[in-house]
Amino acid sequence: MITKRIIPCLDVDKGRVVKGIKFVDIKDAGDPVELAAFYDKEGADEIVFLDITASHERRKTVVDLASKTAEKVFIPFTIGGGISRIEHIREILQKGADKISISTSAFRDPSLIRRASKIFGSQCIVVAVDAKYKNKDFWEVYLNGGRTPTGMNAVDWAKKAEELGAGEILLTSIDKDGTKDGYDIDLTSAVTSVVNIPVIASGGAGKLEHLRDVIKYANADAVLAASIFHYRQYTIREAKEYLKSEGINVRI
Length: 252
Description:
With about 250 residues, the protein is of the alpha/beta class. The chain has one domain (about 5-245): TIM Barrel, CATH 3.20.20. About 35% of the residues lie in helices and about 30% in strands. Strands 1-4-5-6-7-10-11-12 form an 8-stranded parallel β-barrel, surrounded by 7 helices. The two termini are about 15 Å apart. The model has no long low-confidence stretch (mean pLDDT about 90).
């Protein structure tokens, strides 16, 4: 059985972890390195840091975050936001990150996925897809932290990203983000059914049943969550023990 992963997501803005609803109404949730170290001790499988305003403000992700995190965190971690060049990727990986996540830059220059996967290996390259429901079987890809619509179906873009060399898809439902009413099962299912690389489901976790449902019914390989962990609604251990009791293989 494939082990399913639980991944706390740390959205970072101006050096602090924040959390919003549908990519707006942002509130402070703590220090990113301290939170990451806490989740490491709690038993998280990985950590994802997303600098949520980096691409919108056209600035580079703070690479210091990678080196500071590498000193205190011993599980794999991913950094994304504003990464647009091979040099950025190299610097962040050299500072200690295990993977990088690209979204806006990958969509605007798909060759970045191919080049990066050839240089660093596809296992290091996560393509983040932020999508909003438009109509039946169509979820539109948005760029710049949910600000810019593209007209492209997220299902088609995820498939293309895999073909270009992406090792993983980080799939976020903008409609569900921060709502705590469950992941978008239909969106996640549509993507997992057309790609052969792992899909991380993101957006909407509010209770442990939501983690179970997106794994069982949408075949997600990992679940990303923020609010339920940041505000201590559940611990990582509680989440893992619940999933195990539901017949899902997790690392305890």
